[in-house]
Amino acid sequence: xxxxxxxxxxxxxxxxxxxxxxxxxxxxxxxxxxxxxxxxxxxxxxxxxxxxxxxxxxxxxxxxxxxxxxxxxxxxxxxxxxxxxxxxxxxxxxxxxxxxxxxxxxxxxxxxxxxxxxxxxxxxxxxxxxxxxxxxxxxxxxxxxxxxxxxxxxxxxxxxxxxxxxxxxxxxxxxxxxxxxxxxxxxxxxxxxxxxxxxxxxxxxxxxxxxxxxxxxxxxxxxxxxxxxxxxxxxxxxxxxxxxxxxxxxxxxxxxxxxxxxxxxxxxxxxxxxxxxxxxxxxxxxxxxxxxxxxxxxxxxxxxxxxxxxxxxxxxxxxxxxxxxxxxxxxxxxxxxxxxxxxxxxxxxxxxxxxxxxxxxxxxxxxxxxxxxxxxxxx
Length: 379
Prior knowledge:
By secondary structure, the protein is mainly alpha-helical. Helix content is 62%, strand content 0%. The protein has 17 helices and no strands. Its main location: cytoplasm.
């Protein structure tokens, strides 16, 4: 009897131990499965969309698993406490919503997609996401989608009618340079529209300040220059930039070749408008401006600069404006042109340039400058 009782106790102990192990396994396995299910098929509402009407992205979702995306930084609500079952579920839902939102926007924003043109309803969703989200990677993907769609003429009116201009312009206040660049690109594409330009003019001073204070030759600076160039294609809003022309000449002298060319495109728009001639002549120019006329400078840079100076020279009536020439300060573009001998030395220094077209342009500029400054009546 004693032996049978001992065997019974051992058997009971093994059964209880096995049951406990199975319970622990089921508990841990069940939590893991719940987390995976939440990550794959949780709620379809994007957490950044808040109460925005129609801000659901189930039709954009992608169920394919991506282990890399699970490592992304995701905002969790305060009740998602680590170590609790409710916290685990809340964190899984937050990560799933962020993952679906990013996949949805990136899928629509992809240039290689067969369906990159969004409908008005889809554009509304993306604008709502831009307005409500604070996550840089979501904003970047959404702005890329808007920029791609703003390249189409019919979408520029739709985005404006959906209230997209102030929504995108608000992103200019961000400190993230990548997000700011994408916002500037969207506004640049939207600005190829007369009505959009009329509404975007209120942001020109901000864009101008951000452009001249951004890191030299940065993507943000170039994107800002492109937007300002588009906004000054017509003469209507050029006066807004009158106080920043000196800064543009400074960027031109200090920047690399790409920055120089972009600044020249902007200054060329201004130089073609006779009403901006005085503002251009008042602008302070760096003393290094003359040194740009040398053999090492890019041919396109020299030619565009000569065209700008020719336009200014043609638009300014030297004889008629003789009494008012005292209003131009030393170091201004006016004095750069007025000091004919200094200017001539700099320009004539590139007559030995290897390019024939440069030589022709230099000769033409010098002839016009001499004719206006020293008219035959005074010889």
